[in-house]
Amino acid sequence: MSVDESLPPIVESVKRAHPGLWEAYNRLGQAAAEAGPLDARAERLVKLAIAVGAGREGAVHSHARRALSAGLSRDEVRHVALLAVTTIGWPAAIAALSWIEDAFEGSSKRDEPAE
Fold it and tell me: Which of 9, 12, 42, 65 can pair with 4 through a Cys bridge, CB separation 3.0 to 4.6 Å?
């Protein structure tokens, strides 16, 4: 796991205390990814969009960092929040955009488009 994918302390605690649960959770995520035709790039965008729509700040942080690690540009990641404006409303979308910007802090990824 890279620095960008480090887990919050509470998650690390659950992972250590319940390794079987953590392994099952990861297997479920892998099975869900393998269940359809989306490539890794599309999966990153979809998971970020789900987190934005659900209003889950921690998940938005995590999926924004993972999207950058997967090669998406900051502008592509920001676009997810902008697209949400007409679906979840201005305040919720702007909140999500602020969470995405939080995730960018300390990242070495530049604003160049993904290749």
Answer: 65
9: closest CA among 58, 54, 77?
Answer: 58
Burial class (CB in 10 A: 0-12, 13-18, 19+), 96: buried
Q: How many CA atoms lie within 13 A of 77 on its CB side?
A: 32
Could you count the other beta carbons within 10 Å of the beta carbon of residue 37? Answer: 5
Among 57, 60, 63, which residue's Cα sits nearest to residue 43? 63
Summarised one tens digit per residue, pLDDT across range 15-49 is 999 999 999 999 999 999 999 999 999 999 999 99
User: Is the pTM higher than 0.90?
Assistant: no
